[in-house]
Known about the structure:
CATH superfamily of the largest domain: Cobalamin-binding domain
Number of domains: 2
Strand content: 5-15%
Distance between the termini: 39 Å
Number of helices: 9
CATH class of the largest domain: Alpha Beta
Helix content: 40-55%
Oligomer: single chain
Order of helices and strands: HHHHEHEHEHEHEH
Shape: globular
CATH topology of the largest domain: Rossmann fold
Structural class: alpha/beta
Amino acid sequence: MEDAVTRLRNAVINYEMETIADLAKQALKEGVNPLVAIEKGLAEGIKTVGERFGKGEIFLPELVMGAEAMKAALAVLEPAVPAGQHRASAGKVVIGTVQDDIHEIGKNLVSTMLSSNGFEVIDLGVNVPSPEFVKKSEEHKAKIVAMSALMTTTMPRMAEVIGPIKQKKLGVKALVGGAPVTDTYAKEIGAEGYSGDASSAIEVAKKLVR
Length: 210
C-alpha cells in the first residue's frame, strides 16, 4: 500500500483535483508532517508533471490540472505547518501580468510551480501597473520580478519595470515570458531571464538566485 506522501505525489501526477484535498486531510490525520507532505509529495509530483510537459509527453491542459490539484492540497497543508517551522525559501518572487494585459493561465502556472519549488511568491495578479511591480519588489526585497505579457502591444510594459529597478539598484532580477516574448527581446530590454513555458521558468528562476 502506498504511504500518504506517495499518494499525494501520485494524485498531482494523475491530476486528481477532486480527491487530493481529502488525501491531504488524511495525511494530516495519519500524523504526516505537512512540510514533508508538501516537499516530498506535492513538489515531487509537480516536478514530474513539469518534466513531462517539457518533453512534450503532455500538453498545457494537463499541466494546468496538475497545478490546480497541487493548489487544492496546499490549501489544506500550508495552514497546518507548525509555527516556527517553515519551508526553506529559495527567495522571494514578485509575479504578475503587465498593465493592459489580463491573461493569467501562464502566470498562474508559473506562480504555482515556483511556490512548489520553495520560492515565496507574491502574486500581483493581472493588469499590474508598472510602478506597482517596482514598489512591491522593493517592499518585499524580492530576488526576482517575473512578468508575463500575452500581447505584442503590452510587451513594452516590461521595459517600464526593468528600467526603474536598475536605476534604483534594487538588485532584483527580471524574468520575462509569454507567447510573443522572445529571448532576443528579453535581452534587448535588460531582463536577466527568459522562459518560453512554465516548467523551464522554474529552472531559469533557480539559476537567477544562485
